[in-house]
């Protein structure tokens, strides 16, 4: 009989424990709700601090990458924007045009492009496409350095084109004032360098 009473006591204890657990669960749930309420209160009072800091940080880092020109590092404001046709990187139009004189690959990912898309602002619609000449092909065609006359701007009559020993500028003999009729045997300086070179005048 004693064994029976022990078992019944244990059952009662177990029931009490279950009841206690349920009550505890209720209390914990209530505490969690209280915590949530407190969080909501904090968010309401300091929403700008708790809510916005993570998202602002996320946006700021992407803005730094996407809204600054990778070439000059300036922020995009009112200047015209240029994007290579082959990728989605944005540059100041002036920067990418200058870059394209030496290389027709994107400065960021090195993808080759043949046109630059012009936009009025960051993320704007394409207004026009500017064709880009492959600088390598240009160099192959004009492997030799072509010198133009500083006066007439032409590169013909190479036999009569003098190169200044001071600055390497080219001048046709007949374009000089006064013109030269024979090729100088010694050093020859262009009019600008002659002014700065007193030994030539003596």
UniProtKB/TrEMBL annotation:
InterPro entries: PHRF1/Atg35, Zinc_finger_PHD-type_CS, Znf_FYVE_PHD, Znf_PHD, Znf_PHD-finger, Znf_RING, Znf_RING/FYVE/PHD, Znf_RING_CS
Keyword Zinc assigned: yes
MF annotations from Gene Ontology: zinc ion binding
Keywords annotated in UniProt: Metal-binding, Zinc, Zinc-finger
Superkingdom: Eukaryota
Acidic residues composition-biased segments: 1-45
Cited Gene3D superfamilies: Zinc/RING finger domain, C3HC4 (zinc finger) (3.30.40.10)
PROSITE patterns linked to this entry: ZF_PHD_1, ZF_PHD_2, ZF_RING_1, ZF_RING_2
All residue ranges annotated as the PHD-type domain in the record: 146-196
Annotated spans, Disordered: 1-67
Domain RING-type: 69-110
PANTHER family recorded: PHD AND RING FINGER DOMAIN-CONTAINING PROTEIN 1
Name recorded for this polypeptide: PHD and RING finger domain-containing protein 1-like protein
